[in-house]
Amino acid sequence: MRRNAWPALAGVLATAFGVALAELLAAATRPQAGPLVAVGGAVIDAAPTPVKEFAVRTLGTHDKPVLLATIGLALLLFTALIGVLSVRRRWVAVAGAALFGLAGAVAAALRPAAAGYDVVPSIVGAAVAGGTLLFLLHRSFRPDPAEPVRTGFDRRALLRAAAVVAGGSVVAGGTSEVVKRVRGGAVTRSRAALRLPAPADPAKPLPTGTAPGFVTANADFYRVDTALTVPSIDVASWRLRVHGMVGREAEFSMDDLLARPLIERDVTLNCVSNEVGGRYIGTARWLGVPLAPLLRELGVEPGADQVVARSADGMTIGTPVETVLDGRDTMLCVGMNGEPLPLEHGFPVRMLTPGLYGYAGACKWLTEIELTTFAAFDAYWVRRKWGARGPVKTASRIDRPAPFAKLTAGTLTVAGVAWAQGRGITSVEVRVDDRPWVKADLLPAPSSDTWVQWRYDWPATAGLHTLSVRATDGTGAVQTEQRATPFPDGATGWHTITATVD
């Protein structure tokens, strides 16, 4: 086993050098073309829905680093095996490198927003990895199959060559990070320099009586998307193209958008992957251009029933035309909680449609809007069998006390939020164990497009207790008890927790 460790090390070092150079090449041109990101994106696209949901539910915002680390580990194990097999069969090194390059190039070429150049980093990285492995083996191992490996092995020669390769990997990897930081710094400066005008139609102050936490800070706002690298978009060169079933196609710069009347609204946004009682939901004060007037100016052709928004990373989000034109404040957002959109939340422009889950109305890093039909085009998540229209379901959540909390007997505050964007919440009820439902107090909310905070004073007695919550929306519909997973159109069920009172 020990004699195989050295050629395995040679395979790992050669691949590390190839990947580092490929990532450096991608960082200097198109970061999304790096082999790890390209293969990671392909894995995300190909993963079955239950796997995606498990990753989001279990790993949260750590799902992307874990995926990249897993791909890296699998690659290292593969290349270690290639190194061992190549001691006696040099063609294995060539074949392994070719397979590595082909996988990266195909993955990059098939990404939704791929450019012709995107295959280059993987091909170059594979050629470097294969050549480096042959170099290490040539310096350290005799290729004669009749010669036992250990008698043909020159450890010192391998260590000297490996040190050179390892040094090259460190330099390439470090330079890649520097390039990424420089590019990211340019976008950060572009964002910092952006001056957002005051809204022509500002949001009203939050009603007196809202509790702390009604608005979610940008740093705490949930993030769920498929982007392994946050797109770096320069405001000066950004353009939004509007085309398809419109009377007149048009292209807008950021200056064009900011010259239009802006609106400011408090809106709650939630992800369809949110489990019952989950945290993939938040409320922010958004600033943006109302989309309906813009589309009416261009002219929506009869028969168009879907707005397809496209992201800089190739994501497609399909939104019903009726939800854009029915009077709700669908907007092209440029600001979030008093500042330009954070990079992770769609800078410079994202779409937001109140009353729809994010996957059906909130495209980040927006670059294109196409008017079309649901019959003609299936957006990214619809192709994966999620519901096409994505209306938010009535839901509620207990935030206090925490699940499995240990409490002291007496009057305790049970509190949380409830939401039914577009319909509003008219009542929230709490049940303790199997007792009758009791109405909670609703705190003020600015509009039906936000969640509602609620509170209930619970006369808690000693023992183990189960607390449940349900909401009634503005149509009179009571939140269903029936449990359903997020797939295919949002989770349902009452949020229930247990707590021990001493």
Structural notes for this entry:
With 502 residues, this protein is an alpha+beta fold. It has three domains: 2-190, no CATH class; 218-384, Oxidoreductase, molybdopterin-binding domain (Sulfite Oxidase, Chain A, domain 2); 395-501, Immunoglobulin-like (Sandwich). Helices cover 34% and strands 23% of the residues. The chain has helices at residues 2-28, 35-46, 49-59, 63-86, 90-109, 120-140, 155-193, 254-258, 291-298, 321-325, and strands at residues 240-244, 250-252, 263-270, 281-290, 306-311, 316-320, 331-336, 339-340, 350-352, 366-372, 395-400, 405-407, 410-419, 425-432, 438-439, 441-442, 452-460, 463-473, 495-501. A five-stranded mixed sheet has the order 2-1-10-5-6. A hairpin with a 4-residue loop joins strand 5 (306-311) and strand 6. Helix 4 packs antiparallel against helix 5. The longest helix has 39 residues, at 155-193.
Compute the number of strand runs.
Answer: 19
Structural class: alpha+beta
Q: Specify Rg, calculated over alpha carbons.
A: 27 Å
Please indicate the percent range of residues in DSSP E strands (runs of 2 or more). Answer: 15-25%
> What is the succession of H and E elements?
HHHHHHHEEHEEHEEHEEEEEEEEEEEEE
Give, in spatial order, the strands making up the sheet with the most strands: 2-1-10-5-6
Please give the count of helices: 10
Task: Name the shape in a single word.
Answer: globular
Give the domain tally. Answer: 3
